[in-house]
Amino acid sequence: MILVDTGPFVALFDPQDALHARCKAVLKTIREPLYTTIPVLTEAFHMLSPGSYGADRLREFVLRGGVGVWFMEDTGIRRALALMKQYADHPMDLADASLIVAAEVLRTQKIFTIDRQDFVTYRIRRGHRYVPVEIIG
What topology does CATH give the domain 2-136? Predict the structure, then answer.
């Protein structure tokens, strides 16, 4: 399973994006199921502009099952808010925090992102250990 961040969605569904071709090529190599979170989708739709061609394409991708959506429960939201405080020096936004929480709950380390600078810093909690994110893309 691979979690998808905002950047690849924007690049994939906006043909004018500078990273469109790169993200499209990466997507073609992925053979694992894709998942994302509501905060990531919210951010992506905002960046693509409601009613735009890119937003329409992203909406179709979600509805066709191109990506599953993981929903945070109360515990997950509390963990995400704690992570945002922990990484306040970056700062970590809710979308990034939701992906780290999803990685912890869904037992994956793989995140498709173009935000390498932040995700190389973040760590995923595995019991008493913390493991790095495996950046895809």
Answer: Rossmann fold (3.40.50)
